[in-house]
Write a structure and sequence with these properties.
The structure holds 2 protein chains of 2 kinds. Chain A is an alpha+beta fold. Chain A has 5 helices and 9 strands; from the N terminus they run E-E-H-E-E-E-H-H-E-H-E-E-H-E. Chain A folds into 2 domains: 132 residues, Ubiquitin-like (UB roll), CATH 3.10.20.740; 80 residues, Alpha-Beta Plaits. In chain A, strands 2-1-5-3-4 form a 5-stranded mixed sheet, with helices on both faces. Chain A has a two-stranded antiparallel sheet with strand order 6-9. In chain A, strand 3 and strand 4 form a beta hairpin. The longest helix of chain A is centred in the middle third of the chain and has 15 residues. Chain B has a 5-stranded mixed sheet, with helices on one face. The model of chain B has no long low-confidence stretch (mean pLDDT 93). The chains are: A alpha+beta, B alpha/beta. Chains A and B meet through helix 2 of A and helix 18, helix 19 and helix 20 of B.
Chain lengths: 212, 658
């Protein structure tokens, strides 16, 4: 195995060549917020825009899920410019996410709660008003519920359904702010050809897809 | 050996093409060229065309009618060029079916060319002044648009007859690397907006050791107010096809795609014909012009998503997936369509290629400015007299484009209702120009002396973009303009990344609040913070550039934002929630009822003194009364803020008011 050594937040790290900075950091106990990455063996999705880090020699923060480690690289995950972006990114996500943790099926195992705790961000957005969608909850499937109002559009379920299970039941529907995850022609899950593998439910980092 | 056969084969094609080509200049009898591209059609050129056909038949004149593309002079559509032996070819504009008939009758029965309808002659002569002497043509340097409007786009022989496919013949005689070298010498930069050096993209794609390679022509032009690509696609499709074959040969690709918007049906149809004709003549397919080179083109229609103009989203769309951008790198030139090296170039970039090969790189680089060689095509739209396409060398200033070529901002004409009285013209002031569509910026008069080039435009906060220029006058509100463009970007956001999907929605809501008079000063700071983070944090260029209209209007028209927020006043009197219509009693004419009839909501009533007034509760601010009020009174005005509205006078019959 070819290795490279780099520094993240002052900590010297030796890791496999070709790895992305995000995974090198996580393996070494350095938390970088992220929602949309399906693991280091998949291509980066780049949708959640939370895993920004600063790399010495680069003008602007970059997403760590897309940046490969190089020898002698110096990475910082908590600089002012990184925090400014990540804080705003998180605030944007939370401005469209109802804060009803107590009733939420993902309470205590929610990626948003994790980020809030690790980064010291409040769940409730400070600067932005909340714009909450009022979409119908799809309760048609016998094994799981889909609540699009809780969805953060990380795309993990779409990735699992299309690339891993290869069923292609779920995909992004519509455009702009009203983009949502849905089935072909926005039918209910019961009407779709879902094979009930529940892999999407396991992948969901929030409470949008939950077992009954 | 190959060299000779390519040239020989081409000469054969050219000889054949010239046989039937009428030429612009009437050497082969009477010819009438009618512009029937999309802009012409929407102005009624098909009716003009059939009117020409009818009258020629009635008068028994033997003439040939050729349907050509568009000259880019949209303001004067429908247009036609009449070429009659003994006369220079004359271009006519603003035609109607009736005028077409009268024109033919006068020209052919009375030898009177009806010069009052002529825009000018198309070549030097001693009878009629040429169009090239008019300001709209004088400063232009037509290079990319050279054939547009002069040839029948659905006849490949026309293109060959005017020198088409000569560039390809030259290219096939040299090595691919020499072609790339020639493009480098010409200094060609991506004309789709980014301005990346074309030769570099080609070189990277060529050097990537993966096969097969693909070539894509990006014809997904979606900016509001931009139509340069459409005109080239509809009027000179073979220049793109020829450019693609050369590019394919240079990078080693054998298949190409033209990704064109479905909303351009005319372009799709013209392109389909063009590709078929090129295939028939052996210019596409296996062994092009009997050489060892093979290349073919497939036309792919986009499903109407603006974001598909972004390279990676475009590739996803061709692959049959949802058009969503992917993180770069890997760049398409390394890993693009189906994971293979893919070269994506804009329509205008590809259309430049044949000319560079045919005329030499020096010819291109002889115009323009340092770092930006050649010409740029802009689409002038909005509040401008001579709307349409303009092709100018890089380095021309915005002022020259908008005022000298475009003719500046048109005045408003108000008609009087008194017989014989002349209409009143109300002069309007130039306010700003939005360059680069929704990703661009709004530049004020003080920046009009900026020379046009990729780098100088970026310094102002706008972007060159694909070349849309929307001109605004004093009646356009800067905040409303920013809101309009942001609404577009928000609707067209693919929804993938947080900043673009949710961030632009917040910015849009704030702007909407400000235009409604519900904004607070803190909103400006929040807008700025959102704009900066969205610019940095978004995944693709659609998101990254979406705050540009806000940032530039905040920079150049900040006082308008403040007026909306602090005084609840729209300085341009455009934002409906902040204005009220008012009839000035001192100007209103007692017996005139013009406004009353024009009001769709019956908001206008008669006061006790018989003058008219507006019931603000019923008024929907449609401006009909303002237009209806005859020029000699001109009594209706807009007032902002609404608090300055004088108290309303009671009605003629108080009892009716309730």
């Amino acid at each position: 195995m070819e290795t490279v050594s780099l520094t993240i937040n002052g900590k010297k790290i030796v890791t496999e060549k070709g790895k992305k900075v995000l995974w090198a950091a996580l393996e070494n106990g350095i938390f970088i917020p992220h929602l949309c990455s399906a693991g280091e063996n998949s291509l980066p999705f780049g949708g959640c825009r939370l895993c920004f880090v600063e790399i010495e020699g680069k003008k602007e923060p970059v997403t760590s899920c897309t940046e490969e480690v190089t020898d002698g690289m110096v990475v910082n995950t908590r600089t002012e410019s990184v925090l400014r972006l990540v804080r705003m990114g998180f605030e944007l996500i939370m401005s469209r996410h109802p804060i009803i943790c107590k009733e939420c099926p993902a309470n205590k195992k929610c990626a948003l709660q994790d980020i809030s705790r690790e980064m010291g961000f409040k769940l409730k957005p400070k600067k932005l008003p909340q714009i909450l969608p009022d979409l119908p909850v799809d309760d048609s499937h016998s094994l799981f519920t889909y609540n699009p109002n809780l969805c953060v559009l990380c795309g993990l379920c779409v990735y699992i359904c299309n690339e891993i299970v290869k069923e292609a039941i779920l995909d992004f529907n519509f455009r702009g702010f009203i983009t949502k995850i849905g089935t072909f022609q926005n039918r209910t899950l019961a009407e779709s050809k879902c094979n009930s593998c529940l892999k999407c439910v396991e992948a969901c980092p929030v409470g949008a897809l939950s077992k009954k | 050996m190959m060299e000779r056969t390519v040239s020989e084969r081409f000469e054969e094609l050219k000889k054949n093409a010239l046989k039937d080509f009428p030429g612009m200049y009437g050497k082969k009898g009477i010819t009438i060229y009618v512009g029937t591209a999309t802009c012409g059609r929407s102005a009624g050129s098909l009716e003009v065309l059939s009117s020409f056909e009818d009258i020629l038949k009635t008068l028994n004149i033997e003439a040939r009618i050729v349907q050509v593309g568009c000259h880019g002079h949209c303001y004067a559509e429908p247009m036609a060029v009449v070429s009659k032996p003994g006369w220079p070819p004359i271009m006519y504009g603003y035609l109607t079916p009736n005028r077409a008939q009268i024109l033919i009758k006068r020209f052919f029965n009375e030898e009177d060319p009806a010069l009052e309808w002529a825009l000018g002659a198309m070549e030097e002569n001693d009878m009629v002044p040429t169009v090239y002497e008019t300001p709209r043509w004088f400063r232009e340097q037509r290079w990319l648009l050279k054939n547009c409007g002069c040839i029948d786009p659905e006849d490949i022989n026309h293109y060959i007859a005017v020198g088409g496919y000569e560039g390809l013949t030259c290219a096939l005689k040299i090595e691919p690397l020499e072609i790339i070298e020639e493009i480098k010498k010409a200094g060609l930069r991506g004309l789709g907006g980014a301005g990346f050096e074309t030769w570099k993209k080609w070189d990277i794609c060529r050097d990537t050791p993966l096969f097969p390679k693909y070539l894509i022509c990006n014809a997904d032009e979606g900016d509001p107010g931009a139509f340069m690509d459409r005109t080239i696609l509809e009027s000179d499709p073979h220049s793109i096809i020829e450019g693609m074959i050369i590019a394919g040969y240079a990078i080693g690709a054998e298949s190409g795609y033209i990704y064109v918007r479905k909303e351009y049906p005319q372009a799709v149809s013209v392109l389909t014909t063009a590709v078929c004709q090129a295939r028939e003549l052996g210019l596409l397919g296996k062994n092009i012009l009997d050489s060892k080179i093979s290349f073919d083109i497939k036309i792919n229609q986009g499903a109407g998503a603006f974001v598909c103009g972004e390279e990676t989203a475009l590739i996803a769309s061709i692959e049959g997936k949802r058009g969503m951008p992917k993180p770069r790198p890997p760049y398409p030139a390394n890993r693009g369509l189906l994971g293979k090296p893919t070269l994506i170039n804009n329509v205008k970039t590809l259309a430049s290629i044949p000319k560079i090969l045919a005329y030499g790189a020096e010819k291109v680089s002889s115009v323009g400015m340092e770092g930006c060689m050649g010409t740029a095509v802009f689409a002038l739209a909005g509040k401008i007299k001579n709307a349409g396409l303009v092709e100018i060398p890089f380095g021309t200033t915005l002022r020259e484009i908008i005022f000298d070529i475009g003719g500046g901002v048109p005045s408003r004409i108000k008609v009087s209702n008194v017989a014989g009285e002349l209409p009143k013209t109300i002069k309007k002031q130039f306010k700003a120009v939005q360059i680069g569509g929704p990703s661009g910026g709004c530049l004020p008069e003080s920046l009009l002396d900026t020379p046009v080039c990729f780098d100088t435009i970026v310094d102002t906060g706008a972007i060159m973009g694909s070349g849309g220029m929307v001109v605004m006058d004093e009646d356009n509100c800067a905040v409303e303009t920013a809101r309009y463009f942001l609404e577009f970007t928000q609707k067209e956001s693919c929804g993938k990344c947080t900043f673009c999907r949710i961030g632009t929605k917040h910015m849009l809501n704030i702007l909407a609040d400000i235009t409604r008079g519900a904004g607070i000063m803190e909103d400006i700071d929040l807008l700025e913070e959102l704009a900066e983070t969205i610019k940095q944090g978004s995944l693709c260029n659609l998101g990254k550039t979406s705050p540009n209209p806000i940032l530039t209007t905040l920079c150049y028209f900040r006082e308008e934002y403040e007026a909306h927020i602090l005084d609840k006043r729209c300085p341009s009197l455009e934002c409906k929630d902040l204005i009220a219509y008012y009839i000035m009693p001192e100007k209103c004419q007692r017996a005139c009822d013009a406004c009353v009839g024009s009001c769709p909501t019956e908001a206008i009533y008669t006061r006790r003194d018989r003058l008219k007034a507006i019931d603000q509760e019923k008024c929907v601010k449609c401006a009909n009364c303002m237009d209806a009020c005859p020029a000699q009174y001109d009594a209706v005005i807009k007032i902002s803020p609404i608090s300055q509205l004088p108290e309303s006078e009671p009605r003629d019959d108080d009892g009716q008011k309730k």
